Amino acid sequence: MRVVIFGCGRTGSSLGLMLAKNHQVTVIEQNPEALRRLGTRHQCKVVVGSGIDEEVLERAGIGEADVFFAVTRGDNSNIMAAQIARLKYKVPKICIKVADPHRADAYRKMGFECVVSSALIAGFMSDWMTEQPFRPIDEYNTLCEELKL
Question: What's the pTM?
Fold first, then answer.
């Protein structure tokens, strides 16, 4: 698969390195210093720039991408890049890293797959502590009732 990842922080670099073993991966990152996280022998193509800039997205091969991940620390940047990938470039699979669980609910209503890392981690830790089997991701990846207020 052809994969484009916007963001080379801890999540983006880890995802890129994992996927590059079996897929064509391009990482978009605005800060060249962040690219050090990929190491020196990675198999990713790298494009320096913003994932909300169409010229940068085109250099990254967004037009041929099968999957687009928006994994920067900025929820606004991630949703903007995801919308461009969907509406202009018709990328079939898009996943967004979202910090704010309230935003994630709104983005899901727009049809985007969202991952809320705080909810996943809390769910995994809770199940680990109580020695419960790990559940499917969607069971963790939601806003608990107490936070919906």
Answer: 0.91
